[in-house]
Amino acid sequence: MSYAMIEVRTEAEKVGIITLNRPKQLNALNDQLMNELGAALQAFDADERIGCIIVTGSEKAFAAGADISAMAKYSFADVYKGDFISRNWETIRSIRKPVIAAVSGFALGGGCELAMMCDFIIAADNAKFGQPEIKLGVIPGAGGTQRLPRAVGKAKAMDMALTGRMMDAEEAERAGLVSRVVPLGKLQDEALGAALTISDFSRVAVMAAKESVNRAFESGLSDGVMFERRLFHALFATEDQKEGMDAFLNKRKAVFTHR
Ligand code: CAA
């Protein structure tokens, strides 16, 4: 399938890379881009060879938010009846393979929210995160007021949502929004290295780990621990568990079959 607003490629036949590509608009997220992103994510999720997906942007912008020129004239009826945001932003939540956001430059508004919908964020040292919707007379609409406090706590989330200020990469790492910060020139290699590592692990175990960590944000501790325990038990039914443990005991590298 060919795309106009994203670029799609694979690395080592096991990592899928999606690059947002509207450079003149700093990757502002419009319907077409979000539809293409959703389709590309689903295609990689269905591709047996792919073990991990990276979503990235340009050096200047991961994404500067939802497309303001597309939104400016919308009425309440337009956005409510048209199910704006939900209609094509939620696909990423249904992706079962890990999705890494490799963020350089601006990740603002919907761009910050998109990064937070990925499983973890690796940031370049020039990354800037923010929820500046308040300056436009609205509030975050793609989960920013919900995922940001879960990531950085109430104080910083309120600060970001109420003042619209940006957080640099160092502050974002300190606050727990991003997992690693690397020099700009190393961002793609760092993300690819993480994705290749993940791709070589047992696919079933990787998907179970993602599902279980996500459950931590949807349930109380007892339910979450029980969910984890059942998945942990279930993994003893896989060939990969036998291989992983045998490889450790015999001091060799495990070769997983993903079954
Ligand atoms: N939507 C549409 N176009 C955008 C855009 C956006 N979110 N962000 C940037 N652009 C466009 C600019 O209009 C400009 O276009 P022209 O060259 O045609 O004028 C081009 O991208 C370059 O932008 P700037 O000239 O402004 O670049 P800069 O380096 O001076 O500033 C910036 C960069 C600080 C990111 C600034 O562009 C900015 O503040 N952008 C808007 C950020 C924002 O408010 N995002 C939230 C959007 S609302 C949202 O996302 C809702 C939600 O929760 C889903």
UniProtKB/TrEMBL annotation:
Catalyses which reaction(s): a (3S)-3-hydroxyacyl-CoA = a (2E)-enoyl-CoA + H2O; a 4-saturated-(3S)-3-hydroxyacyl-CoA = a (3E)-enoyl-CoA + H2O
Keyword terms, alphabetized: Fatty acid metabolism, Lipid metabolism, Lyase
EC number: 4.2.1.17
Catalytic class of the enzyme: lyase
InterPro entries: ClpP/crotonase-like_dom_sf, Enoyl-CoA_hyd/isom_CS, Enoyl-CoA_hydra/iso, Enoyl-CoA_hydra_C
One GO MF term: 3-hydroxyacyl-CoA dehydratase activity
Keyword Transport: no
Family the UniProt entry places it in: Belongs to the enoyl-CoA hydratase/isomerase family.
PANTHER family named in the record: ENOYL-COA HYDRATASE, MITOCHONDRIAL, ENOYL-COA HYDRATASE-RELATED
The protein's name: enoyl-CoA hydratase
